[in-house]
Amino acid sequence: MRVLLIISGGIAAYKSLELIRGLRRHGAQVRPILTKGGAQFVTPLSVSALAQEKVYDDLFSLTDESEIGHIRLARETDLVVVAPATADILAKMANGIADDLATTALLATDRPILVAPAMNSRMWAQASTMRNMELLKANGVMTVGPAHGELAEGEIGIGRMAEPADILAAIEAALGGPLIGVRALVTSGPTHEPIDPVRYIANRSSGKQGHAIAGACARLGAAVTLVSGPSNEADPPGVETVHVETARDMLDACLQALPVDVAICAAAVSDWRPAEAETQKIKKGRRTNATSPNLELVENPDILATLGARENDRPRLVIGFAAETDDVVAYAAAKLASKGCDWILANDVSPHTGTFGGDDNKVHLISRTADAPRIEEWPEASKVEVAARLAERIAETLGSAA
Ligand code: CTP
What we know:
Strand content: 15-25%
Number of domains: 2
Number of strands: 21
Shape: elongated
Low-confidence stretches: none
Structural class: alpha/beta
Strand order of the largest sheet: 12-11-8-13-16-17-19-20
Bound molecules: cytidine-5'-triphosphate
CATH topology of the largest domain: Rossmann fold
Largest sheet: 8 strands, mixed
CATH superfamily of the largest domain: CoaB-like
Number of helices: 15
């Protein structure tokens, strides 16, 4: 993978050094162009040391022109990335202005372009910037960020450059993967079902497996919506993450995300919820006869079964997990039918396996066929490896069905 990285003049330029590192770790060749403004924030020496490449900065450099030339620089790449992209460079790009090496390369390239805008929130919200962004998007320029957060001037708002990990994920997705054009929905984590404002019913799910699956699908190019219950896992880069608490909120967020091509339900949804959540904290002494409260439970909606039974917008592939402590494969095969899904990943969650909350997983993939379900045993692996294998399997299946 070859990336032409244009670093323009914003404080976020320091994060581009981290981006170069990440790209190099992924085996990418990085050719950097540093604008005059960019060089105010990072030195050519640091950029070239990290990229292990010459830094290009001058349109009229006879040496550069005789060695490679700005047209070749613009074209001998798989992707052009502008990070940070200032309001100024975005305006020039939108209007076809070419007044230095960076903007000339941007005008001369026939390769896809990804921009990571970074600026003060007022500059971002300005009508002219919004207009320029619309123009760029209409011209097929891809964007990542900007994010909401602390800005250079100490203000909080939208304008922060996307984190290097998010830009990397966007680069991988932009360069194409077998899931390009595929929309995926993933559920992850536990749900919290309130008893009163301070207490809830939950389970030990960590969200590690579901988050890893969302990340793996995004890395192969899918547009992923992750609907996550409360979890300590970070939002995976390049994934749209919706945070929810209860099973009912999770279902609503999933239905909102439809239509999708594939739904993967990895969440450990609480099967029941208190019939009525108290609005005040339940106090020990205040109840009639000071008896312990009786918790009346009602069943939660089954998200997987709901998705599997959709009439007009059923995902082409509906995948569930079966967390079992005994007779793993038999119970899982029964769930395949009862939940109307296409595949079930069955895992043993008995306490001795350490699966719940742990880093590893041992699964059986059970898929529906015209005859008896097909059972495949996968070797024990990290949850990240299981996720990558699943994402590849999804790509093969959706690809061959297309
Ligand atoms: N699931 C769901 N909504 C629910 C319950 C479960 O979407 N209300 C999904 C899970 O995400 C998982 C699959 O259904 O993909 C199976 O979950 P599991 O807990 O193994 O099964 P249950 O349906 O809860 O059945 P049981 O507890 O009786 O084994």
